[in-house]
Amino acid sequence: QVSQWVRNQAYPQGSVGRFMDPVYAVFPPRLTVGETIERLRELIKQAFITYGFIVDEAGRLRGVITMRDLLFAEHERTLEAVMIASPFSLDARMPLAEAMKAVLSRHYPVYPVCDGDGRLVGLVRGQVLFEEQNFEISAQPASMVGVEEERLTTPWQRCLKLRHPWLQFNLLTAFLAAAVVGVFQETLNQLVILALFLPVLAGQSGNTGCQALAVTLRGLTLGEVRPGRERALVAKEAWLGLLNGLLVGLVSAVGMYVTAASQHNPAAPWLALAILLAMVGSCVVSGISGAMIPLTLKRLGADPATASSIFLTTATDVASMGLFLGLATVLILW
Amino acid sequence: QVSQWVRNQAYPQGSVGRFMDPVYAVFPPRLTVGETIERLRELIKQAFITYGFIVDEAGRLRGVITMRDLLFAEHERTLEAVMIASPFSLDARMPLAEAMKAVLSRHYPVYPVCDGDGRLVGLVRGQVLFEEQNFEISAQPASMVGVEEERLTTPWQRCLKLRHPWLQFNLLTAFLAAAVVGVFQETLNQLVILALFLPVLAGQSGNTGCQALAVTLRGLTLGEVRPGRERALVAKEAWLGLLNGLLVGLVSAVGMYVTAASQHNPAAPWLALAILLAMVGSCVVSGISGAMIPLTLKRLGADPATASSIFLTTATDVASMGLFLGLATVLILW
User: Fold this and answer.
1) pLDDT digits over B218-251, tens only?
2) CA of A197, closest CA in chain B: separation in Å?
3) Structural domains of chain A in order of their starting residue, each with its CATH number
4) What's the distance, Cα to Cα, between the start and end of chain B in Å?
5) In this complex, do A140 and B141 lie within 8 Å of one another by their Cβ atoms?
6) What's the CA gap between A311 and A268, in Å, rounded?
């Protein structure tokens, strides 16, 4: 137990090697089934044993034997002859997240873990991997807003420290959007009604982008994004953005027209047209961004969930409000 | 196989009963270990068998026997004497989500499933439960934006149908926020600079709320919210909202002051004060809403992830922009 702990410490944090339990049931290939049973009879008194592992003189994993095989094989046969040869094993240096994907379709109670030379160095329980996986997957929405390390029991001082930098960083990007609005301050001065619809536009294109982002992230989590399919995925999101933007834009245009007309604004039809076009354009940008940002982050080796939403919000805010105010300026004030 | 399928159909959609495999290794309690091994020798040729199940004359599950126990028990003993009595089992009528929670700490390869009278009616593989669980947990961010049913391969027509209602519903709530801004149109008319900071304020309080929401939802998913602790949780989020709002509000106030002063606006200090106070107030509201909305939905029996973000956005938009414009009106124009 102690020596296993020492061995585990040699592996990097977050790797499979850190989570290994010691292996007790290790047997040479030439041992007979009968001899193995006799050895196991003693071993099971000391440890909970699920499988027997067969290793050669160099310590390399050669096979696995189940209790079922031992029960029904003839006692004179050698392990070599009845074992499951070249069994599935994990590499101790593998990050836990990768190991989880590797075992997803297996669901064994324990997995043998080997070093780079194929030597059996420990066991890892399936439960350990799956607990980590639940924890990881459930962290995704949290990581999108910078709080993946936080639990309910985290003291508030630490919460503040974890959450606050993310908010300040977002503020920076919000100032960017404000600056875009600022460019059109003269337009707003003449058409205050535009201000009412700025949050509507930013909100809707943000939502369209979030839908694309959520679907893409989930596809990445479940390993469904096949190489070469990225372009089709982005095209689909652009198309959906166009259609959703068109439908939502029409309703917004009606809302804008009614509001402007009730204020006796002679530019009411043009205002309605501006919001319709801006909604379509910004929803297309949002859809494309929602799919492309996580795919790009993933390709760059970053965690696609963590930073996606900041980039997405910036893109949707700047695109939607800039487009809207720009169109209104061109259509009405020029 | 066919009769098992018929039996499964009798259970409600999404219940454990729908996912059952047939049980082959069923034995009476008085059978000896030796007799059991002989029976199993034939059974393992037909099916993959992990455990033996011991049922009484009425078909009720009495115990489980592992291959390891059979291997090392004396052949004359009865199963009754060596089995694991009153083993863990799932109820066939249980929803899958509940079953997943029940097996979270067990991680057996298969689980016996019983009907309401404790009769063994099938087996369910752990893998099936865990696949469903990954799928469910990974659906959470998607369900927050109304796309939990969608996969990467879903055709675009269906995507549009799934996503669009959510966007239209959000538009309705965005109009509510726009109406709140509309109340202060005269204020905006006199102080166009306020329009620049509306998206900043809505964005920041939205983010504060999303952080609280993500942490609370994760706590609910991992089963960490203990009854009676809800009030403390909401209080903590209110406190964090206050602190985050204060710090973000100070930076925003500086931004507002610099912008207003550069435009020679004599109300610059008051504008800065208005955004500071509005930021603090709306971040407190957002923090409280982010924690309370999912807890309330959960208590009402609804899925806390699905609708939370719509309610949250509405609350943060109305609170942040209403507070900001109201404060500006009171502080500067009165």
Assistant:
1) 888 777 788 888 899 999 999 999 999 999 999 9
2) 6
3) 2-138 (3.10.580.10), 155-333 (1.10.357.20)
4) 80
5) yes
6) 34
